[in-house]
Design a protein that fits this description.
- The chain is an alpha+beta fold and about 150 residues long.
- The protein has three helices and seven strands.
- It has one domain: 2-Layer Sandwich (Alpha-D-Glucose-1,6-Bisphosphate, Chain A, domain 4), CATH 3.30.530.
- It is globular, with a radius of gyration of 14 Å.
- The mean pLDDT is about 95.
Amino acid sequence: MVDILHRVGIKSSVDEVYSALATVDGLSGWWTDQTQGDSNAGGVVQFRFKADGFDMKVTDLQPGKQVQWEVVGGPPEWIGTEVVFDLKQDGEYAIVLFKHQGWKEPVEFMHHCTTKWGVFLMSLKSMVETGTGAPYPRDVHIDNWG
């Protein structure tokens, strides 16, 4: 198994970052503006990009500390993987320790997703710090996959 890992500092409180990760409105402000569903524990949130997307079951919510999802719909490489956002405060920065874990192998699509997660985490940072993110379709496109 292989994982995608990122660390991002956001000049903010962990509570503000948690809200951006744990609500449909927050998520649509930095990942994709085509977000809907139930962001409560046990719910499923749908994220759409072009004609496809991902369905995430919310498996754990710890206010100010963690948001965790299991991928239940989307590309075969993503099904059964987990996305985890761990949060901690470090002075004036909320630190996001991001994991997209459980990939079976580092296929080319994983390389793409690693870069795109970085792009979207920078969108999260911008949204929380300035009020304006760059969710899909206004994100940085890196290839014909998006």
